[in-house]
Structures are given as structure tokens and as C-alpha cells.
Design a protein that fits this description.
This protein is an alpha/beta fold. Helix content is 34%, strand content 23%. α2 packs antiparallel against α12. The protein is elongated, with a radius of gyration of 25 Å. The structure holds zinc ion (ZN).
Amino acid sequence: MRTVKTLFFGCILSFSSLAATSPADTATSQIIQLALQPSSLEMNLRRLTDEIGGRVPGTPAMQHAIDWGVQAFTAAGADNVHTEGFTIPFSWAEGNTEMTATTAYQVSATKVGGATVLSPFRVRAVSVAWAPALAPVKHVPIVDVGDGTESDFKKAGDIAGKVLLVHSVVLRTWDDLFAEYAKAPPVIDLAVKGKAKAIAFMATREHDILYRHTNSGAGEIDRLPMVIVAREDGERIARLLAAGNLVWADLSIPNQIGGPIKSSNVVAEITGSELPDEFVILGAHLDSWELGTGALDNGCNAALVIDALRAIKASGVRPRRTIRFILFSGEEEGLLGSRAYAFNHRRELDKAAGVVIYDSGTGKTTGFSVGGRNDVLFTAKDLIEPLTQFDVKDLSTTMEWGTDHFDFMLEGVPTFVADQVEANYLENYHAVSDTYDKVDFAQLKKNVAEAAALSFGLANLLQKIGPRLTRDQIEQTMRDSNSVDMFKAFGIWDEWANGTRGREK
Ligand SMILES: [Zn+2]
């Protein structure tokens, strides 16, 4: 039997709730305190980012990261650890992408018919991930298609064989990021229809920051070559074109593309004391892009999941249900690891008692999105009550897209995605600058406490927080939360409607 030697509650709970403190409240307080104590969190993350580095499935670094996960879970005290493989249809790696722009200008700005000079300049560019290679081409006209709307394309005229420059806005908010993802598919449609040679998306970050982006949703190779160009270079080309100068591109994108690859999710458990077959998942993705070292996206939260296990285990309190701590792979290529896990485990998802996901760097958590589920709000409010000390208090019923809860949500399982403030996440998003030095460890430790407390709370409830929804009920939550258009924009609606994704009945 464990004796609680320190009364932590004084600063956390009001006097009236102290009077009503249950053993579960006591355990939660204890787990929170243990999460905030010094741990191997920093060392684990330093090893993952500085020693292993960026982690794209199919690379040795990803395999090293999987081994890192197994070792770190074991060291944290997991009851068991294993990996579960899945397949990604293609491997992809960037070669030495090169782009030069050349413009022509008149030596004399006043004299008509004067000599013309060619002025080449290097454009800093990286390939869009899972986009096809482009053999070197020279002197290809660049055409500005503005924001890439249908009317912009009409104005641009004949785009066949040309490189298209697409404008963007500087990324500042979650809405901007969402808009960036939503904008690409129709631009690609129009570019393919007009037989363009390639697309050059202007970077959404300033100061020459380049980042990896993908528009391919399931690990398939995209329809035409695409690059992200440094914002400063893109704006220069746009100004030249607007002033009437012709601009041509020399472009080479020697991406290496191969056949199917295997990657793995890492799964560790704390076994439940009373209902071990029922389970809660606390997850974060382990893979990352490779221009930086994937510290904010999402190494910090992979380390969080491991440290949450440590804190719960260290409390000596076993939750009633099992908690599965999962590091997903293939998230960046289209949520592929969590999608495979949800699909392969769909027969046991009636026993899933909640899925908690962190995927937004180390910004302060404001609350959780519960995936359209009004039915879980009442109990969820109770579960996050101990987290009001960290200002975690908002519950939103938004059905989010874009992280690893998604396929569980489409299987009808209650999901909880941490809503976090942007902090420094977006300026470093998928970028060369996403490195260990950007991590706010004081905040990350609070996030560990919150993740551990919520996961433990869900696993320890007398009744599951909510049932697994039927297919009809899931579709109703999509309509009630006005999510259908969003799903259509990302091509998910068709997969749902034709039964290739989400609950069968
Ligand atoms: Zn992420």
C-alpha cells in the first residue's frame, strides 16, 4: 500500500473539493507532481533530435528512432513494449534540388531598343515531399498564377510546359496553416489540366526559411513536380514578372523514389488492474521531416508520451483499464501509422475508452478537442478539472483533421486532441529551424502532467467516457459539427463514403 506523504491538493483544489477528494483525485495529483519532477525527458529528446535527427520512414534514422522508443519505454517502466509494422507504398528522398531564375533587362531604362542583359540568380528551393522527380530542364518560362484560383489561372493564359509561381501569405495562425493545406489540391488540379511543367510554391515563412511540405495524402507519388521556393526569391520573381520582365527557370529535382517500405509504430502498455482488455491510447507521432530534426514536430511529444508513462508508473497506482502509449510512424505522409493501427485493431475498438493525442509542439495547452462528441463533454469537464491549475479548461467539439486521432475518430472512438497555442510552432513548422533549442521544457513538463492525468483519468473511470459510435452516428457528428466540407476539401469524404476509411457499420 502506498502512503501519500505530501498534501499537494491545497494549491490545486478548493476546500470544498478537498473535502470530497476520492482516491482517484489523490492518484491524479500524485501523477501530476511526479510528471513535474526532474526526469529523462530532456535527455530522451536530445538523443532523438541531435543524435538520431530527422526521421523519415524508410531511412536508417527512422529505424533508429523506433529502437530509441523501445528502449526509452522500457527504461520508463512499461509493463510490455512491442512494435507493429505497416507498409507505405513508396519510399521518397530528396536529391540535390537546384533552381536558377534568369531574367532579361534593358541596360538603359529610358532608351528604347537598347542592349538586353541576361541576369541569372540562384533560387533557394526544396522539393515538395512525395512529389515526382524532374530531369534537368533549362530556360522554362515562369508564369505567375497569383493565389492559384480558377480566375488567376484564366488570367495567366497558356501554362503548358511552364513553371507556375504560386503566392502565399506568411504563416501566423492555425487557420493559415489549414488554409495552406486546403489550397494546394485545386492548384495541382488546374496545373495538371493545363499541362504545366512544375509548380513553385512561395514559402509561407520569411527570412529564407525552407520547409518540407507534402500534398500527397496516402504515401502515393504526386502528379507533377513541385518545389517550395524561399519567400524572398519568390517575391523577387513576382516583382520582375509584374514589371514586364521575362523570367525563365533552370530546374532540376532529382528525387529518389523507390518501392514499398516498411515502418513501425512503437506500443508500450501499463496493464489495467480491473479491465485490462479495455484500453486508453496516449499517442504522438515519432516520425518527422528531415530538413530540421523534428523537435517541435513532434519529437517533444514523443518524449512526452514516454515521460507520461514514467510518471504514471512511478505513482504506483494502476488504472482500472490498460493504457497503451503509442509512438506512430508515417504521420507526415498522411497519418499512415495511426490509420494502419486503427484499421488493424478495429475489431477491438469497442473496448477503446479514449484516444489522447499531442502534436503541436510545446505551446501551452488550452484544452482538448473532442471530435464532435457532445456526449463526452460532461465527464471530460470533470477529468480536466485538476488541470485548471495549468489553465487547461476549454473543450471544443471540433472534428479536427491532420493528426493521429483521425482514424480512431472515424471508427467512432472518443478522441481528445490537445489544443495548444501556436507559440513558436508555426514559424519552425517542418522547417530547417525545427531543432532542440526551440523546445520550451518548462511548458513541455506541464503538458506531460496534463497528458498523464487525462489518460489516467479516462482509464480509471467506472464507465467508459462514451460508447463507440456507429457509422450512422459518426456521420451525424460530421454533419452536426459542419465538418463535411472540410472532409471533402481533403478528399477524405470520398474515402468515408465508399467505405475505404472509417467504421464499417
Ligand atoms: Zn506533427
